[in-house]
């Protein structure tokens, strides 16, 4: 079954990297001592400077398992040190929440280490949204496994050095005993992603203004009459800078096409068929295909332009629909 | 001296590379330095002797920083080549021109990237804006329709090529199967020990029809560097000289970057035709003079028209060349014996130049017998480049 449209927004976030979150304090002996007391760790390597001096480390080091603790926010939520990113690495969870997957359970927290961290080092981490799984139903309910990977670095003038990594996975789900109807998503809570806007220059403005007015305009050399697309400031045949435009009939045929499947980038629907259209006037342009069945698109198929407005009229595009030969 | 051409004037004398991976775990600058120092050590040339650099405009490691870290004091030549993988062969060509003209005696070329772990080219989301600079205006014809990945741009050419010449998705698949077979026996390859079958290719999911997943190279992290100096000096260095017999760049009619859709015929790669003609003219060689070739394979479909542009097959008949297995292990022109970008790694084509160096030296993982000349091509669908490397 096809995923719902809003999931393509979630999918598009996968792979996203989030900026640095710094540690409030340098790695220091008092915090190590307190952590060891709390955790019941009595290895003198972490607390006894005289003993640590006799080891290969030469001085007190931080317990590896403490890695995440150095970069925690502290008592007050979301209170990170200056210079830390304002981005929210958990934004994907909020998005899932807005679609009714309100419950969460942590399922993995796997720490790995490159080396021991020494007193005096300043750490930070960056986060990558590593994966969002397919929809799964467990005893808890239906939802998605979301995996984040935090990479921890030591901040050094000579070049930052990776010291460890934390793989953190949660199951973000709609509890099995909750009615989906009660969880109607708030559409306005999620900002709508718009289609990319074209860059428009003095050489091409006529095309986009024409499209907005429902006209497919082609640039024409005033000197030799050559039609050209994409438009440019000068004729490729006679190098005249004088040009005007003609309105195309909008009839043409498919010269080539692709059907976009992956990556599913919002706000596009996938599969997304896109054609290279040869207009009857003789120039080609790229445009989306509408009213086509994926397996029935054919090179040579006759098509006719129609205009569609997107994003509350901010963008009008010529699209092409098959017509009888 | 009456030799006014580039052919035979310079040689690749040092080769260095990092491992290829999905996450190098270190900076691009560090990758560049590891590969460069390794290439200089391989050549037996002291870093202080480097007088020139060439790389890609897309490389984010500046040559001045490489120069600073190497301790260079006398750098007299530096260039960067645009258009992504279309650059792949051109840094070596530029280095050879600098050496041949005496502008610089020793030139380092490099490509270093964390194109997998730090950023990716295939996400379909780019920083294109709507200010009227040319790039934004140009991509404005495609992005609003969602035609926004390299695979999709290649797919537009491939669909027409299939329609015109009767090539099939299976023909593209045979390219992938051939290079993955080589990768399977190249310990440096991403897909070492992981060959695929044509059935695997056909069953792999769609990326942008007509391209399946296995028509597309994986994105990767890594670096490759080489050292170029005069053919004369190369004779006295520790490695077998790899002579630069020809180098060329190409732009042809109706050229765009990935979107030359407006040419009368979009089934060929005329910019590669420009490169082919120039390479053959410079070197005096022809299609029958190569024992192996490194043909740019970020996506399988463009391998076919390249074979045609270089005269290995007639127009529209590359599919027959592929169906006969001439490109595969043991074929008459084994293509991408390192596994290609589809199988070894995507280091923007520079790893393909490295393979040509190893084939000429006789040190490749999948060494082809009696190699005298190797053709190398760069990125397709963009302004491009090519090289002929060979024995002295």
TrEMBL record, chain B:
InterPro entries: Thiolase, Thiolase-like, Thiolase_C_2. It comes from the Bacteria. Pfam families: Thiolase_C_1. Residues 257-382 form the Thiolase C-terminal domain. Gene3D superfamilies: 3.40.47.10. SUPFAM superfamilies: Thiolase-like. CDD domains: SCP-x_thiolase (cd00829). This is Lipid-transfer protein. It comes from Aromatoleum diolicum.
């Amino acid at each position: 079954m096809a995923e719902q449209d809003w999931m393509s927004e979630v999918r598009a976030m996968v792979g996203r990297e989030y900026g640095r979150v710094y540690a409030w304090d340098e790695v220091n002996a008092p915090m190590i001592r307190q952590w060891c007391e709390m955790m019941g760790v009595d290895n003198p390597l972490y607390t006894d400077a005289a003993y640590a001096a006799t080891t290969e480390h030469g001085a007190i080091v931080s317990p590896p398992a403490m890695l995440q603790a150095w970069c925690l926010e502290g008592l007050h939520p979301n209170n990170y040190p200056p210079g830390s990113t304002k981005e929210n690495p958990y934004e994907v969870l909020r998005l899932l929440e807005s679609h009714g997957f309100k419950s969460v359970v942590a399922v993995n927290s796997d720490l790995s280490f490159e080396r021991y961290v020494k007193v005096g080092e300043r750490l930070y981490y960056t986060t990558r949204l590593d994966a969002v799984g397919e929809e799964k139903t467990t005893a808890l309910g239906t939802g998605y496994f979301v995996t984040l990977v935090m990479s921890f670095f030591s901040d050094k003038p000579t070049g930052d050095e990776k010291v460890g990594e934390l793989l953190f996975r949660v199951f973000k789900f709609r509890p099995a005993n909750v009615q989906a109807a009660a969880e109607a998503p708030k559409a306005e809570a999620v900002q709508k992603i718009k289609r990319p806007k074209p860059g428009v220059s003095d050489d091409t403005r006529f095309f986009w203004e024409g499209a907005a007015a429902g006209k497919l305009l082609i640039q024409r050399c005033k000197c030799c009459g050559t039609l050209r697309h994409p438009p440019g400031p000068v004729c490729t045949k006679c190098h005249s800078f004088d040009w005007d435009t003609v309105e195309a009939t909008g009839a043409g045929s498919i010269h080539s096409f692709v059907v976009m499947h992956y990556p599913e980038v919002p706000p596009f629907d996938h599969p997304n068929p896109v054609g290279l259209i040869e207009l009857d006037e003789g120039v080609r342009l790229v445009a989306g295909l509408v009213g086509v069945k994926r397996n029935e698109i054919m090179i040579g198929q006759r098509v006719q332009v129609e205009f569609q407005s997107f994003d509350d009229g901010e963008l009008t595009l010529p699209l092409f629909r098959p017509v009888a030969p | 001296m009456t030799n006014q051409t580039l052919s035979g004037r310079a040689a690749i004398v040092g080769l260095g590379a990092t491992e290829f991976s999905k996450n190098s775990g270190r900076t691009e600058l560090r990758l560049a330095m590891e590969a460069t120092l390794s290439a200089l050590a391989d050549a037996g040339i002291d870093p202080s002797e480097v007088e020139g650099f060439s790389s890609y405009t897309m490389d984010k490691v500046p040559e001045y920083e490489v120069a600073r870290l190497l301790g260079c004091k006398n750098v007299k030549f530096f260039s960067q080549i645009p258009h992504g993988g279309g650059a792949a062969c051109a840094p070596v060509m530029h280095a050879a021109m600098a050496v041949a003209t005496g502008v610089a005696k020793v030139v380092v070329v490099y490509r270093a990237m964390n194109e997998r772990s730090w950023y990716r080219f295939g996400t379909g989301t780019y920083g294109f804006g709507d200010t009227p600079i040319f790039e934004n205006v140009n991509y404005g014809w495609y992005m609003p329709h969602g035609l926004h990945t390299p695979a999709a741009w290649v797919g537009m050419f491939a669909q027409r090529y299939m329609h015109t010449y009767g090539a099939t998705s299976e023909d593209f698949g045979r390219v992938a199967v051939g290079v993955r077979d080589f990768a399977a026996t190249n310990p440096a390859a991403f897909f070492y020990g992981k060959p695929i079958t044509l059935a695997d290719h056909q069953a792999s999911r769609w990326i942008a029809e007509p391209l399946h997943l296995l028509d597309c190279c994986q994105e990767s992290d890594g670096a490759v560097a080489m050292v170029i100096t005069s053919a004369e000096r190369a004779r006295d260095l520790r490695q077998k000289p790899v002579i630069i017999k020809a180098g060329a760049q190409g732009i042809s009619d109706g050229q765009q970057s990935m979107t030359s859709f407006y040419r009368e015929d979009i089934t060929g790669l005329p910019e590669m035709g420009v490169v082919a003609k120039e390479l053959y003219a410079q070197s005096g060689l022809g299609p029958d003079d190569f024992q192996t070739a490194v043909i740019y394979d970020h996506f399988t479909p463009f391998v076919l028209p390249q074979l045609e542009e270089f005269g290995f097959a007639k127009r529209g008949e590359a599919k027959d060349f592929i169906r006969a297995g001439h490109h595969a292990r043991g074929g008459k022109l084994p293509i991408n014996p390192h596994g290609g970008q589809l199988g070894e790694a995507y280091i923007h084509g520079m790893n393909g130049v490295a393979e040509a160096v190893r084939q000429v030296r006789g040190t490749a993982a999948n060494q082809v017998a009696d190699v005298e000349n190797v053709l190398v091509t760069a990125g397709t669908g963009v302004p491009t480049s090519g090289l002929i490397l060979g024995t002295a």
